[in-house]
Design goal:
Elements (H helix, E strand, L loop, with lengths): L10 H5 L20 H13 L5 E6 L8 E8 L2 E10 L4 E8 L2 E7 L4 E6 L6 E7 L5 E10 L3 E4 L2 E3 L1 H14 L6 E2 L12 H5 L8 H5 L1 H6 L11 H18 L7 H14 L1 H7 L5 H8 L4 H9 L6 E2 L2 E4 L12 E4 L4 E2 L13
Antiparallel strand pairs: 1-2, 1-11, 2-3, 3-4, 5-6, 6-7, 7-8, 8-9, 9-10, 12-15, 13-14
């Protein structure tokens, strides 16, 4: 089976799978340094995305943490395979080898290379490409059949049995490299650099990418986060507005906001809470401890004069200073009211 038509599998297949429009988008900070792996992947995206008959795959043949890029193109009856290597000096992908009439690619770890099967009569040719001592990708060995019943390993004639043995071994024991098409489904624009690499394709061609293109291309992460999303940014802005409402008494006035602000001030008044200790909570703790059966629990959670809890105001902390109580802040949270946070909506209480 032609490798350009095989189903994608493995990490590359998953990376290019169709994702929801509102899924989180991984973003890059301005100072992000692209790795060799990033460079080769984005080169594959750039050379194949939205182009009919184009596909690509990555394989680190010589285990130097700079994978080689394999780009396939269906060109009528002739399938063209191009192999790109990582140019460390210029930090980019460089075309190294072009192979016509390619059929399949097999990982050849024994030689830190690949076996490329190409169309040939009366039987296909199997060529071994691997890196030499100087780090150059070279055609090392070639097994081929010729009309007239002769078989060769490079220039030396071999028996039909040896030829078939090598072919059988290549197909049975070596993993086939599957090249992935980027024409459909949409490219995974959540991956760092993809949006800028392929550009805005328009809503009709890629709704997810086009609808969030300006954000994907221009926004960057701050130093404390490894991922972000458009919706996360809106949430951060909303949280800031809510905090301003709790702290800016000159700008926000009225009985309702004053009541909420009083509650907020109580939450963040650590000195007062330390002075009071657990005594103010003893009444509620004793009521919980008094529950000994299902009927008592039912009475407890349905008592209109009893304990009412709400999750509309949560206590959160800066993750980088969680051991410092002075860094704790109260944050408004748009959750519904509940009488029991463990069975309600409080996400900060363990099961």
């Amino acid at each position: 089976m032609n490798f350009f038509r095989k189903l994608a599998k493995g990490s590359i297949g998953f990376a290019l799978a169709l994702t929801l429009v509102l899924a989180p988008f991984t973003k890059v900070q301005a100072a992000y340094t692209y790795t060799a792996d990033d460079i080769m992947y984005l080169e594959g995206i750039e050379r194949t995305a939205y182009q009919e008959g184009m596909s690509f795959g990555l394989l680190d043949m010589n285990l130097d943490e700079a994978p080689e890029l394999f780009v396939g193109k269906r060109d009528g009856t002739s399938d063209i395979l191009k192999i790109y290597v990582y140019d460390q000096v210029n930090h980019k992908a460089k075309l190294d080898t072009t192979i016509k009439k390619a059929v399949s690619i097999y990982d050849y770890p024994k030689k830190h290379g690949v076996i490329v099967e190409t169309k040939h009569a009366p039987a296909n040719t199997f060529s071994v490409y691997c890196f030499d001592k100087k780090g150059k990708l070279k055609l090392q060995t070639e097994y081929r059949a010729e009309i007239g019943g002769k078989y060769y390993k490079d220039k030396h004639e071999i028996s039909k049995k040896k030829y078939k043995k090598f072919v059988k071994k290549a197909k049975k024991y070596y993993e086939q490299l599957v090249l992935v098409s980027c024409s459909t489904p949409w490219v995974d624009s959540s991956i760092i650099g993809v949006a800028e690499t392929v550009g805005d394709r328009g809503l009709a061609n890629d709704f997810r990418l086009s609808s969030t293109y300006s954000w994907l291309k221009e926004e960057h992460l701050d130093e404390k986060n490894t991922q972000s999303s458009y919706l996360n940014d809106v949430g951060v802005a909303t949280a800031k507005n809510l905090k301003d409402m709790m702290t800016d008494s000159a700008k926000y006035t009225g009985a309702n906001i004053e009541a909420a602000r009083t509650y907020y001030d109580m939450i963040i008044d650590w000195e007062k809470r330390d002075q009071d200790g657990v005594a103010p909570l003893r009444e509620y703790i004793d009521r919980v401890l008094a529950v000994s059966d299902l009927k008592g629990y039912e009475d407890f959670i349905t008592d209109p004069e009893g304990l009412y809890l709400t999750d509309f105001l949560s206590i959160k902390t800066d993750v980088y200073s969680h051991i410092d109580a002075s860094k704790y802040i109260g944050v408004m949270d748009p959750g519904p009211f509940t009488m029991d946070p463990k069975i309600g909506t409080n996400p900060y209480v363990d099961d």
